[in-house]
Design brief:
Largest sheet: 8 strands, parallel, barrel
CATH superfamily of the largest domain: Alanine racemase
CATH architecture of the largest domain: Alpha-Beta Barrel
Strand order of the largest sheet: 2-3-4-5-6-7-8-9
Distance between the termini: 22 Å
Number of helices: 10
Number of domains: 2
CATH topology of the largest domain: TIM Barrel
Strand content: 15-25%
Number of strands: 19
Helix content: 25-40%
CATH class of the largest domain: Alpha Beta
Radius of gyration: 24 Å
Length: 346
C-alpha cells in the first residue's frame, strides 16, 4: 500500500511506563476509543498486551471489538443499548442517571447477571452523570435493594488547562460524593479529562488518552507517524490552477507531485496550502486544496521520482497549530485512514 501509519512500540511503551511511574500504585486506564485516537485499536492493544492496564472505550461496538483482542478490564464510557450482551461479555460500563440504574438492575436480576457499573458524576462538565446528592443517594438505595454494588465512581474534568478555580470546584464536588459511597462496596474511584494524570487528585485509577499517544508533556514521545509516496508527477504552466476551486495558481512553470492521501483518510482539508512534507530530505509545500483522495506538492527543482517515500506527519502538534485545533482532532481524523498500519518494534 502507498499509505502507511507507523506505530512506534518503543515510544508507546515509554509513554505508558512514564505515566505508570507517575501513578505509582494507582491504575492506568488507556483510552482506545475512536480507533485508539486514530492509531489503530488492534495495533495499540497488540503492543500493550503485557501491560497491567485497563482499557476505556466510548461505545459498545468498540467494546465488543476490543473484547476480541483482549481479556483485560474494559469500561464503556458512552451510552449503552444492549445491556445483556455487555454484561455477558464481562464488560464494565458507565451509568448516568437513576432511571438507567433501575433499568439495568431489572435486566440483570431477570437474567441472573452481575452488572459492573461505573456511576458518572457530573461535577461541572455538564455532559453526562448525576449532579444532585438526592439522586445520588437514590441510586445507592436502588443498588442496595437489588443487592448490587458499584464497580466504579468517576468524574471528568472540563477545564484543567484553562480554569484552575473551576477545576478545584470540580475536585471538591468529586471528593464530597466519594465520601458518601458505601465503604463496604470497595468502589474504584477514577478521573479523566486531558492532563488530569499530572495533577494531585485523590483517585484510584486515571483515564489517559492523548498522553499515552505522546502529547501533553515534554517527556512523552509521539507514537504515530504517517507516510506515503509520490505516485504521479505532472507539470503546471504559469497561470494554470492546481486542484479544486482554483485553490492555487502557478506563478511560473511548476513540477507537481501527487500523493495519494486525502481528507477521506483523515488529512484535514484546512491544511491546504499550509502543509509541508519531506521527501529524500527535501521540504515540499502543498499546493492546491487537499482532495478527498490525494494532495499535490511543489517539487521545485528537486530530483524526485515516482515511488519516492514522503513523510507527512511525525507530530500532530504542528498540524494542530496550522489549523488552530488540537492534537486530539488531528489524530482521531486518522481513525478512518485507508492504508496499512505497521508496528515498528524499535
Amino acid at each position: 500500500m502507498f499509505n502507511k501509519i507507523i506505530i512506534s512500540k518503543t515510544n508507546l511503551l515509554h509513554n505508558v511506563h512514564y505515566l505508570q511511574n507517575l501513578l505509582e500504585e494507582k491504575k492506568l486506564c488507556v483510552m482506545v476509543k475512536a480507533n485508539a485516537y486514530g492509531h489503530g485499536m488492534k495495533e495499540i492493544v497488540q503492543c500493550l498486551k503485557q501491560e497491567d492496564i485497563a482499557y476505556g472505550v466510548s461505545n459498545e461496538e468498540e467494546a465488543f471489538a476490543l473484547r476480541e483482542l483482549s481479556d483485560k478490564q474494559i469500561v464503556v464510557f458512552g451510552a449503552i443499548e444492549n445491556y445483556q450482551k455487555i454484561m455477558s461479555e464481562n464488560i464494565e460500563f458507565a451509568i448516568f442517571s437513576l432511571g438507567e440504574v433501575k433499568k439495568v438492575c431489572k435486566i440483570a436480576k431477570k437474567l441472573d447477571l452481575k452488572p459492573k457499573m461505573h456511576l458518572c458524576l457530573n461535577s461541572g462538565m455538564n455532559r453526562y452523570g448525576v449532579k444532585e446528592k438526592g439522586e445520588f443517594l437514590k441510586v445507592i438505595a436502588v443498588l442496595k435493594k437489588y443487592n448490587f454494588a458499584l464497580s466504579g465512581f468517576y468524574t471528568h474534568f472540563s477545564s484543567l488547562t484553562t480554569d484552575e478555580n473551576y477545576t478545584e470546584r470540580q475536585k471538591r464536588i468529586f471528593y464530597e460524593f466519594c465520601y458518601m459511597l458505601p465503604k463496604e462496596w470497595n468502589v474504584t474511584t477514577h478521573v479523566g479529562g486531558g492532563r488530569s494524570i499530572f495533577l494531585e487528585i485523590d483517585a484510584q485509577m486515571f483515564r489517559s488518552g492523548i498522553e499515552v499517544y505522546g502529547y501533553g508533556n515534554q517527556d512523552l514521545l509521539p507514537v504515530m507517524s504517517v507516510k506515503s509516496q509520490i505516485v504521479d508527477i505532472t507539470q503546471a504552466e504559469e497561470g494554470e490552477h492546481i486542484g479544486y476551486l482554483c485553490g492555487y495558481t502557478a506563478q511560473q512553470k511548476m513540477k507537481i507531485g501527487v500523493i495519494p492521501l486525502g481528507y477521506a483518510d483523515g488529512l484535514p482539508r484546512k491544511l491546504s496550502n499550509k502543509m509541508m512534507v519531506t521527501c529524500k530530505g527535501k521540504t515540499l509545500e502543498n499546493v492546491g486544496n487537499i482532495c478527498m483522495d490525494c494532495f499535490m506538492v511543489n517539487l521545485g527543482k528537486n530530483k524526485i521520482k515516482v515511488g519516492y517515500e514522503v513523510d507527512i506527519l511525525n507530530s500532530a502538534s504542528l498540524f494542530a497549530s496550522l489549523i488552530e485545533s488540537t492534537e486530539y482532532e488531528v489524530l482521531t481524523n486518522f481513525s478512518r485512514f485507508r492504508g496499512e498500519r505497521i508496528i515498528l518494534e524499535n
